[in-house]
Fold these 4 entries.
Entry 1:
Amino acid sequence: MSETALILFAHGARDPEWADPMRRVCVAVREQAPRMRVELAFLEFMQPDLRACAEALLADGVERILVLPMFIARGGHLKRDVPLLLEELQQRNPRTRFELAAAIGEAETVVQAMARHALALAGG
């Protein structure tokens, strides 16, 4: 197993089908990086939540946990709540490195992919 684990962190919803695209991304990442531990966690309504997911990885001895928010942009949860949770986990687990990436929707490659998709739909 890799020393690094990736948590794809999504908002969650009451409708279980909402998570289907997130599950597809998780499967695609696992296929492209079969040696990396890749998990999917949710902020609310769905399981596992971020804390439970991180604690399962810690129990398996993962040394680095990278949390990638599957959000279009960074709002209050990513500015306040998630950093506090990761700080708490970091304090309780000093041997593990916790990192919070920027929201995936803020990555230039994702912005350009959305622009290409929008233009393709519009026939441009």
Entry 2:
Amino acid sequence: MPSSRRKFIQQTAFAALATASIPTWLKAAPKKKMITGIQLYSVRDEMKANPVDTLKAIANMGYQYVEHANYINRKFYGYSAADFKKLLADHGLTMLSGHTVMGPSHWDANKKDFSDSWKYTVEDAAIVGQELVISPWLDDSLRKTADDLKRYMEIFNLSGKLCNKWGMRFGYHNHNFEFTQKLGNETVYEIILNNTDPTLVTQQLDFGNLYGTGADALAIVKNNPGRFVSMHVKDEIMNAKGTGYESTVLGKGVQVVKEIIDQGKKTGGTMHFIIEQEAYQGMAPLECIKQDLAMMKQWGY
């Protein structure tokens, strides 16, 4: 087969896949659906030991949506994108978002292009059915100075354009350093918000992670309307050592969870409410996320 013919077929196939992967919320914006899901990091040990039984248990609790935190060598929890999508579908589950760190190695400054590994990340996210591709970390080397970080925010915007080509959006998930580290007169989070295009880069606000930093999650949502398509819904409690905070079952901690998610729904543009619990105070993780979902339903989500 001539190389020109082979190239045309490949391009056509990729274009067809990209079109087929465009989610309903992009094809018909007024029909966007608010969802409540679970970040699978909440049951990381269970997913590592037996993903099939864990997903079955999650579905039996009443969850319909999950978010991944495991994508290695083009596989989600050991499954190819197509196979993991089928596994989820077998249990009535859908995965609309996922966490994969976009780091310095994913951008080739000489070629001014993304690495193949990042392109595969986006492609596989589309195949599995994601709407959001979320990077949950910012390497230290990218935030040594305000100018360094501002330059990298241009790469964030380019990643947004790449994701858009596949019918998805690119997003960033915060921890706590974004609110405690200042570069010049701005915090890292302020630089991220002020130097990314909201149409290309959304934010997944983890308001549990920022608890105890002095940042006010409710004020952040109020002051930045429409910036938070997704939230990590997380309550916080003082840890046993009394040295800081850790996550707990929703409604049992000190964070004003319902006020924040209500504000996200009202002005934040939030459509994805993703439960995450990383510490369990002696309870079984699966029991924790069952109680988390019950509380979200009680709150009307």
Entry 3:
Amino acid sequence: MSILVRAIAWLLAAAVTFATLGPPGLRPHSDLGQDGEHALAFILVGLAFGLAYPRRRLLSVAAAVVLIGVLELMQFWAPGRHARLEDFLVDALTACIGFALAAAADWLFTRFRTGSAVTSEGPAE
């Protein structure tokens, strides 16, 4: 399962990198608007990496924010693209929200697993 989640996380990162640096005409568009598209993409990336690397979540968050900044700066050299502080802020914030959702999911799964183990064994004496 862990390998599958990691593969999905890296595929999402590759897709976001292509959408960020690739030709604007090949970028997917939706009714969410630019900020909505950015938010959805980076929440998914943060969630996927948060679930893929739970033991290194804080390091992953820091690396994600730095790499999001690098992606934004690389747009200076990508034809037809532009770097904007607003895009960086939306991307970094929503990636952090994705990581927080992954941490909350881990906490809930652990809590329910522990709770179901206690109820199946009966009360401790």
Entry 4:
Amino acid sequence: MSSLVEYSFEIEKLAQILKFMQAKRVLIQLPNGLKPYASHIEKLLKSMLPNISIFFSGGDAYGPCDIAFDEAKLINADVIVHYGHPALGISSNEIPVIYLPAIVNISPKVDIVINEIRRRGYSNVGISGSIQHVNLISVLADELKKVGINVYIGTRHGFPPGIILGCDYTAALAIDKYVDVHLVVAGGIFHALGLRMITDKEVLAYDPYRNTVISASDEYKRRLALKLKQLLDFDKLDLFGIIICKKVGQFNMHLAIKASELLRDMDRQFLFIVVDDVNPETLGHFTDVDAFVNTCCPRLSIDDIDRFNKPIFSLYDLKVMLKKDISAYSLKLK
């Protein structure tokens, strides 16, 4: 464990909750980045609740919309423990879900952030980030204020201040009109890129693991160019696979029907494809399909543009192509 980043898994709190619930069998769901800590979590939890049976989900956990209900039912779990995301209100009448943030224990390099903001000439900064870095948001806010930078932190009902998801930027948008730039605290550029898709303001990504601050604009422009190329080739496509995801937080038959109506209006053929997870291997078997339409996670049509060898369009893309005008096209989470 010494070589890994330290996280707060709140084992004592979890043990108290499980004891109160009289849980006997638990399924723990971890994002891929937290899976190396599985044995550590089990050891600590077993030390407090020696008679409990612990299982770990081996599947992906992309967000609070992606809860492993099927796996939990399969093993007859009493409860699901979902780490790494805030509660989104998705539940099951059969199996309760405990959401824990897994806050990272890391000190931000504040000088790097301050210097980059000053170099770019910004004075009004909006700060947001993923749930693992909720403590860093307040630390950065305090330090920026000390050097005379105005700081804004938005809220979303049910989330801690400043917390965003890859598909929910309510907290950041609540302060958008007050800021010159958004600063997103998270590993990588995923969250910052998503915010850049729904604001015209500059978005900077602060990665506390690498201690880097970069703009999301370059990656936004690259993905926009790739998407425009797909749209320019749209007339060459005939058969579309409309993807319907089984995940409880991503299943949306209404969008699938709407997609079929849009394709029908464009005189295109289509078929419905129901999947548990959207990946190149699963979709690659449909060799006769020219392109896919995403009705699942809104990020798939943009973030996975490099992963698939066939285009994946959103309903927004279909609406644009129905009008046959991409002159004002921009990447959007729709």
